[in-house]
Amino acid sequence: GENVEQHPSTLSVQEGDSAVIKCTYSDSASNYFPWYKQELGKGPQLIIDIRSNVGEKKDQRIAVTLNKTAKHFSLHITETQPEDSAVYFCAASANTGFQKLVFGTGTRLLVSP
Amino acid sequence: EAEVAQSPRYKITEKSQAVAFWCDPISGHATLYWYRQILGQGPELLVQFQDESVVDDSQLPKDRFSAERLKGVDSTLKIQPAELGDSAMYLCASTRKQDSPLHFGNGTRLTVT
């Protein structure tokens, strides 16, 4: 089955810096890669996703890149703000009709003012 | 914005007792998922419903866990008997279509003593 690895487990940056979180996956059939942000005491919230027919996707300060050959994808946050502090999860799914998301282990991002 | 509703938010129970969690998905969402999230880890799929039918329960410990979605709307996840290792956050998610992004509720945090 699918295995998703995520690095780093913790990331501390200064406000205004960029943050990059990387994930690798094992199943070449995976074709959907979402990123979720989870704040304390809340459920994961989708912040951006990408499908395997696209190499990069941007939404304001957030971007995701996908390298299908190398089986890795990354989340890029520019101009970080204290409110970006949270745990971020990547996930992968081989969409064979129904989604079956396999999540990474999470990255705790701390943005210091 | 519509949300996935879950209750209770917190539950403390003694081992060997029965416990149940409830989920009401976003209106019109036919696909419903239950995930378990152990502290410090990513969510793991327990069971997936399409309307009232189970699509995937391969990861559900069926000796003690059960899930139902009788009318294809809200759903209940039950554990009987609870064990110490069941302490976790139980998350419900729903999607309108099979390949749509998952929307998560805020979960039920279970502590088994």
Structure, explained:
By secondary structure, chain A is mostly beta strands. Chain A has strands at 4-7, 10-14, 19-25, 32-38, 45-51, 56-59, 62-67, 72-77, 86-92, 102-103, 107-112. In chain A, the strands form two sheets. In chain A, strands 2, 4, 5, 9, 10 and 11 form a six-stranded mixed beta sheet that branches. A five-stranded antiparallel beta sheet of chain A has the order 1-3-8-7-6, with no helix packed on it. Chain A starts with a strand and ends with a strand. In chain A, 35% of the residues are buried. The mean pLDDT of chain A is 94. Chain B is mostly beta strands. Chain B contains no helices and eleven strands. In chain B, a hairpin with a 7-residue loop joins strand 9 and strand 10 (103-104). Chain B is globular, with a radius of gyration of 13 Å. The chains are: A mainly beta (113), B mainly beta (113). The interface between A and B is medium-sized, with 25 and 24 residues.
Characteristic key phrases:
heterodimer, A: 113 residues, mainly beta, six-stranded mixed sheet, five-stranded antiparallel sheet, 0% helix, globular, B: 113 residues, seven-stranded mixed sheet, four-stranded antiparallel sheet, 11 strands
Radius of gyration of chain B: 13 Å
By DSSP, the count of extended strands of chain A is 11
Helical content band of chain B:
under 10%
Element order of chain B: H for helix, E for strand: EEEEEEEEEEE
Strand content of chain A: over 45%
Overall pLDDT of chain A = 94
Largest sheet composition of chain B = 7 strands, mixed
Series of H and E elements of chain A: EEEEEEEEEEE
Main sheet attributes: strand count, strand direction, barrel closure of chain A: 6 strands, mixed
Helix content of chain A: under 10%
Q: Note poorly predicted spans of chain B.
A: none
